[in-house]
Automatic annotation (TrEMBL):
Protein name from the UniProt record: Meiosis inhibitor protein 1 isoform X7
Entry's Gene Ontology BP terms: meiosis I
Annotated gene: MEI1
Species assigned in the record: Phascolarctos cinereus (Koala)
């Protein structure tokens, strides 16, 4: 037996020599002997036999491969892949690799038969430390994956397919670069539809394989240049490679990256192909109640995410050192395919690419490699990518615009016809735009194409051209268009205007000729929304040139406001309105505010917009002007706006007749604006003729309104009240005379006050009227109190008297809930005015209901009040004071002081009784319970002064006064408010004048405190007296003093 083995070996060694001499016949008997040797249990014979066949196939594959295949030699070879001998495996791999060159190998399904054995073999080799053997096995696997016919399914069961994916995933992670290079080629071949189309598609395995592929590429260190390379752009290196060629490791890394990109490209192509097959969208074997993760959609979204986080950074990192045109061609093709794979994310992905300078990258690739007829494939890939990218970006812009959206088709046509010819560098691109000679149609289309690319790049903050030079180039383009009598499409003109606006700060102002060209083109466009770009620079551009401002300022401001808070700058989604401005402008507030400071024309346009624009825009204008006036309290601005407002109001009243609100629904907002422009800090401003005319017009307007026009009446009442309290006594008298002459105003005021005691709905019986109606009532009572006080003071003629039922006023004060503090304070100020006038006002008549009984002597003395009403009012005032609301407390104390003065004049006994009630002491200590030194509150000091005045020792004893004086002496007066100091001075004077203290030490304390106070100026506090509380104009001094 040993001799036979020796003879067989010698014969096998002779076989390669015979094959080189063409002495092997390739007969069936020879193939049978080869098969017998492969089936033998002698490993040496198997190795020798396999090597013999390989040598024969190398010599003449066409002649001998078919014979071996017909003899089923591949089956025997695949069977041998399960052995542990590296020599036999190496020989079998070599022989099978040679046999794969024969198509018959696949048509007779030998690959299908042996794929499972091959995968098992590779899995076993991965456990060994044999890179060469693994590389050889992967080469065989790659060839089978590449050459397997589409009509013959390679993987007949999903388990083998998953095992193959796992083998490739491990091979890609191998530390040996040669193995990795072969593995990535196998992965690229594995990602083919006919290998993976049988359900269920193993999306999870494919995702893991792509992840491993990209992770391995990310681990590769980028090549290091031998010497610095001069750069021709901001992204791509230029110059020539160093004299010494790249190292072997660098070449291997380049091959791996190239292969990985091909693999990723094939994975993307696979996802695109499966989109057309509903059966491949999801795993049909997933339970209905289980969340479906292994689907085409999740795989597609993974590809996008992997490209964003791994593929793009890796390719760009390697390209920084050496840019390969073929590699970039694949890379850009991958990016283009992702727009198709995940269509619902294409706009967001496009914006990210644009903001990452991919428009610039593509243009620089075209300029560097694609001039003339060179690198046509790269030029096509760049152009296709740019076209898809720009159309996605522009489509996102168009979605935010009203129909018709014709710009997209124009942009698509320009890009498709001209992108391939745009291969210019930066300076050449500017020269192309600036060409002022006669420009033919093709050249003009290239100019438009370049303009669109720059427009979309600059929208996404990729400003790669010198802005001053770009400004000049766009300017020249517009002049050229005008000289040739052309009319550019609106979308092209929009791009030109945007670039001019963005670059304006870095360039000189436009001359008359380009401004004329811009104006002429704009006048030919029916809807300026077609050329409007929402960006602060665009707004500033139109408002800085008087020619453009006078003709288009109104429309541009309206467009700007219609987009604000409901839109966003070019390139942003309208849904993200809160971030309505690019990052570079996010911290600069509303760009209109600095523009408003520069001139009055924009202010007047904004005022017109409040009157003529839709309600939402008018409200935005109101907000802007409110902010502006708060930051710039300039009386000249207020006067300018009041004069313009008077013109608008006069025109409105003339045109609308008796129904002004039907003519303009924005009238309440306009009146709110009029109230806003009133000076806030000038209490002694003389009213001019414009102010008096406005008072007359607003009072007439109020007379034409019904009580349903709550907003307009509230704004009107606020304006009238504010006008009375911000002027000098002389002007105030003239203003009151104007208002008293308006009978319709007084009639409306009577109806407004009557709303106070209308029966509310049962559910809100204690809450009072709704917020706006409550504000109107507050303003009505305050205005009535002011008119009554000034009429009584000046003895002005009254044409109509207001009637108020006194018992209803008192009832309202007693049963109004705590929340309505301002409401109660307003009524208290009215009642205080009536008490101060001794109920003798010619304007307001307070009447009491007839009880049917003859009044008592006390009631007759207190008329129109009764003793019962006085006591009822005192209890109400005490209850309101316990609420400890500052404004309400001021109103209560003022009203209580006026009541006691009224009672002192009418019935001193009743006045002393009111001041000496024991309940007052409990009330006082309740108020003092607020904290340390709470007695230094101006309202409490005024209350104690009142009790001292009437010598109410049961309320405030000598010991109490002494304690207050001792504690006051410890206080640092510089920390007290001016109102507190004034109230304290009055308290000390009252204590001295009444002789309430018998203790000499306390008397000395009073004198010392008095001297300290006299050294301090007790001038009125310098603070804003007029404020707006809950929509109601309120004068603190009117409530307090």
């Amino acid at each position: 037996m040993g001799e036979l083995r020796l003879v067989s070996l010698r014969c096998l060694r002779i076989c390669p020599s015979m094959s080189s001499l063409d002495l092997c016949s390739g007969t069936a008997s020879g193939d049978w002997h080869e098969a017998q040797l492969l089936l033998s249990r002698d490993e040496t014979l198997q190795v020798a036999s396999t090597q013999c066949m390989a040598a024969v196939l190398v010599h003449s594959p066409v002649k001998y491969a078919a014979a071996f295949i017909h003899a089923d030699i591949p089956e025997f070879l695949f069977e041998r892949l399960s052995c542990a001998s590296e020599a036999l495996l190496r020989a079998a791999y070599s022989c099978l690799l040679l046999l794969t060159e024969e198509r018959l190998f696949f048509s007779k399904c030998h690959a299908v038969y042996g794929i499972e054995a091959l995968v098992r073999s590779l899995k076993g080799i991965l456990q060994l430390n044999s890179p060469e053997l693994l590389k050889q096995g992967l080469m065989l696997f790659t060839e089978i994956l590449k050459r397997q016919p589409e009509e013959i399914q390679l993987f007949t069961n999903s388990a083998t397919c998953r095992d193959a994916s796992g083998v490739l995933r491990e091979a890609v992670s191998n530390p040996v670069l040669e193995v990795v290079a072969e593995a990535v080629r196998a992965v690229a071949a594995f990602f083919r539809k006919h290998h993976l189309s049988s359900p269920p598609v193993p999306y999870g395995e494919l995702q893991a394989l792509v992840q491993a592929l990209l992770d391995r590429c990310a681990d590769l260190s980028p090549p290091v240049s031998q010497r610095p390379l001069p750069s021709c752009g901001l992204l791509l290196p230029g110059g020539h490679p160093p004299n010494r060629g790249p190292s072997r490791a660098v070449l291997q890394q380049r091959d791996i990256l190239w292969g990985a990109l091909e693999g990723f490209q094939n994975a993307c192509r696979l996802a695109i192909e499966f989109r057309n097959e509903p059966s491949a969208w999801e795993n049909p074997f997933t339970a209905p109640s289980t969340e479906k993760e292994d689907t085409l959609e999740t795989f597609s979204e993974f590809l996008l995410s992997a490209c964003d986080s791994l593929c793009i950074p890796t390719v760009m990192r390697h390209s920084e050192q050496a840019t390969q045109p073929a590699l970039m061609e694949i890379f850009l093709s991958v990016l283009s395919s992702l727009f198709i794979i995940v269509p619902h994310m294409k706009e967001k992905f496009s914006k990210k690419l644009a903001s990452s300078s991919f428009i610039r990258l593509s243009l620089e690739l075209k300029a560097r490699f694609c001039c003339g007829q060179s690198h046509l494939a790269l030029n096509q890939a760049c152009s296709s990518f740019l076209c898809s990218l720009c159309l996605n970006l522009f489509s996102a812009l168009e979605e935010t615009r009203p129909p018709p959206r014709e710009g997209l088709s124009i942009v698509s046509s320009i890009l498709q016809h001209s992108l391939a010819q745009v291969n210019t560098r930066g300076s050449e691109s500017l020269a192309l735009l600036s060409d002022s000679l006669y420009v033919d149609e093709a050249a003009r289309q290239r100019q438009y194409c370049l303009l669109l690319l720059l427009y979309l790049a600059y929208i996404h903050e990729d400003r790669f051209m010198p802005e001053a030079e770009l400004f000049s180039a766009v300017r020249s383009l517009l002049l050229s268009v005008q000289d040739q009598g052309e009319r550019p499409p609106p979308v092209i003109f929009r791009a030109a205007l945007y670039l001019l606006a963005i670059c304006q700060d870095k360039a000189e102002p436009l001359e008359k000729a380009p401004l004329s060209a811009i104006r002429k083109i704009l006048e030919g466009i029916s809807d300026l929304r077609l050329v409007y770009s929402h960006h602060p620079c665009t707004l500033k551009f139109f408002l800085m040139y008087p020619d453009l401002l006078s003709r288009f300022g109104h429309c541009m401001l309206e467009l700007w406001l219609s987009w604000e808070d409901g839109g966003s700058p070019e390139g942003e989604d309208r849904a993200s309105a809160a971030s309505a401005r690019p990052a570079a402008l996010a911290d600069h507030g509303d760009p209109l505010l600095p523009i408003l400071k520069s001139g009055s024309s924009v202010l007047l346009i904004l005022l017109d917009l409040v009157y003529s624009s839709p309600m939402d825009i008018a409200r935005k204008v109101l907000t802007i002007l409110k902010t502006f006036l708060k930051e710039n309290e300039d009386i000249q601005v207020g006067s300018l706006l009041r004069g313009h407002f008077l013109q608008i109001l006069q025109q409105l009243l003339v045109e609308s007749g008796a129904a002004p609100l039907q003519a303009s629904s924005n009238l309440p907002l306009l009146l709110s604006l009029l109230f806003l422009v009133q000076p806030k800090n000038e209490t002694q401003r003389e009213l001019d003729s414009t102010d008096l005319k406005l008072l007359h017009q607003v009072s007439n307007l109020c007379g034409k309104c019904s009580l349903d026009h709550v907003e307009m009446l509230l704004s009107s009442f606020n304006f009238l009240y504010w006008s009375l309290h911000q002027t000098t006594p002389g002007s105030r008298k003239r203003a009151v005379a104007v208002l008293l002459s308006s009978t319709p105003l007084l009639t409306l005021l009577q109806k407004t006050l009557g709303l106070t005691w209308m029966e509310p709905a049962p559910a809100s019986a204690l809450l009072g009227p709704p917020t706006k109606e409550t504000a109107l009532l507050c303003s009505g009572w305050l205005l009535t109190a002011s008119l009554s006080a000034q009429q009584h003071l000046g003895g002005l003629e009254v044409h109509q008297t207001l009637t108020v039922e006194l018992d209803k006023v008192l009832h309202t004060l007693a049963f109004r809930k705590k929340k309505a503090a301002l409401f109660s304070a307003s009524i208290l100020r009215f009642l205080r005015t009536a008490l101060e006038q001794n109920f003798s006002s010619a304007l307001v008549m307070l009447v009491s209901s007839d009880s049917g009984q003859s009044p008592s002597p006390e009631d007759s003395a207190l008329s129109p009040l009764s003793l019962q009403q006085v006591l009822f009012l005192v209890v109400s005032l005490q209850n309101l004071l316990v609420q400890k609301d500052l404004l309400l407390s001021q109103a209560v104390v003022g009203c209580l002081e006026a009541l006691v003065d009224f009672l002192q004049a009418r019935s001193p006994d009743v006045a002393r009784h009111v001041a000496a009630q024991p309940w007052n002491r409990f009330l006082l200590f309740t108020l003092l319970d607020a904290g340390d030194n709470s007695f230094l509150s101006p309202e409490i000091l005024r209350l104690m002064t009142l009790f001292v005045r009437f010598r109410s020792s049961s309320v405030l004893s000598q010991d109490d006064i002494g304690y207050v004086l001792q504690e006051t002496a410890k206080v640092n007066f510089s920390e007290l408010s001016m109102a507190t100091l004034q109230a304290l001075s009055c308290f000390l004077l009252q204590v001295q004048s009444t002789g309430s203290l018998s203790n000499p030490a306390l008397s000395m304390t009073i004198r010392t405190l008095g001297e300290t106070l006299s050294e301090r100026s007790l001038a009125p506090p310098r603070r804003q007296d007029l404020v707006c509380l809950g929509g109601v104009a309120v004068s603190f001094s009117h409530i307090r003093d």
